[in-house]
Amino acid sequence: MPRLNQLSLHEAREGMSKKQFSSRDITQDHIDAIETRKDLNAFITETPELALKAAEESDKRRARGETNIMEGIPIAVKDLFCTKGVRTTAASRILKDFTPTYESTVTQNLLKSGAVFLGKTNLDEFAMGSSNITSYFKPVQNPWKRKNSKKNLVPGGSSGGSAAAVSSRLAIGATGTDTGGSIRQPAAFCGLVGMKPTYGRCSRWGIIAFASSLDQAGPITRNVRDSAIMLQAMAGHDPKDSTSINTDVPDYESCLGKSVKGLTIGIPKQYRVDGMNPELIKLWDAGIEWLKGSGAKISQISLPHTKYALPTYYIVAPAEASSNLARYDGVRYGFRSEAPDTLQDMYEKTRAQAFGDEVKRRIFIGTYVLSAGYYDAYYLKAQKVRKLIADDFTEAFKKIDAILTPTTPGSAFGVGEKMDDPIAMYLNDVLTVPASLAGLPAISVPAGLDKDKLPIGLQIVGRPFDEQTVFQIAEVIEKSSGINFDPDYTNAKNK
Question: Is 7 within 8 Å of 172 (Cβ atoms)?
């Protein structure tokens, strides 16, 4: 038998149901694996004792015949989800010693489903970034390497710690949050499946807010089936969250394996831009052929306001961030600057010392676009354009069932390669942001390797609350690709 940390979620679940091993066995294997990969810096807080205790409780439940959808499965939690009694930092100095007295709804749902928490994963500070290099707790490394190179690569962000942990077999799955691509982009960079469900499908209660009208929780896993299982455990209506939608959660796993024959897949012409990476175009064309070969119809569509998506996002998201982060003032909880002269001085010094450069940059942008004299010119206009972007999707979905695009403009880049250019960093989100602005479900599936033998992904965008179709199409892409997206396997071949 291979090491238990090599098993996928559904394989682990099956093995435990057949009594081939226990939750304690598989949890211990993951704890041991975490010890061997400290170099990745995937975790901010590890909780091995709590994990083993939870695994033993799970084994007792299983012995009594009480099992749930995630029973005994060891997973990691992005350090943006409040976890009762376990430090929650948002990868920021200002919350470095914050321990919540309550549990986020998503993590509570996972605990009810039987999941075992291994610890809290690293991220870009307050989820602001596409590289996982803005964390107060130092950067995360991607377990993948370029062919014939030892250079460290970024895992993507902001859910980079979650992606690195799952990719390197330190956790079977992990929670992430996606504001403009923060689940899908790191999933693409690390050869994983990253699912951003419809806005409102998963509760935001107890998740430290970045941009409230965009933030959405979702799973990062090694395959589509695991993603479907984990999303079902995470999702559900929550009266504590006014943006949570009161609708039943489907059995996502049951929709898998169904034919895509008769479905129409849209290919937006605006996403094929001059100068686009030819390897991405080749992979995109391959994805189109895979779906055609499985019986789906292909239709070119137009999303004319896509070109405005990125500037719209970088007005709306910082505006909401500047408002959400106003609560971190050193008064009630979190870091406080020493020896301030006045209350105003304490506010200023606390925020200056405790926020990183990227967070400060976005607060400045957000405050500017919300200020008197600029509100109408920037924020209000951005909200109107956001509506036009959403309307484009609504119109397209009258004729199609889903949309296929690349996930990112390229594969993982080297640590430090784009740090001095915020615009270049922001452009990483250009293909993921439109679905976020429209609140649509979207998944990234690893589909190929580029010339450097690094993973690149394809993105499927679906109708609101139609995650089933998205999973269905994603599974076809996954099976058609036929590539082993294990970084240890590929790295060893490339040496």
Answer: yes
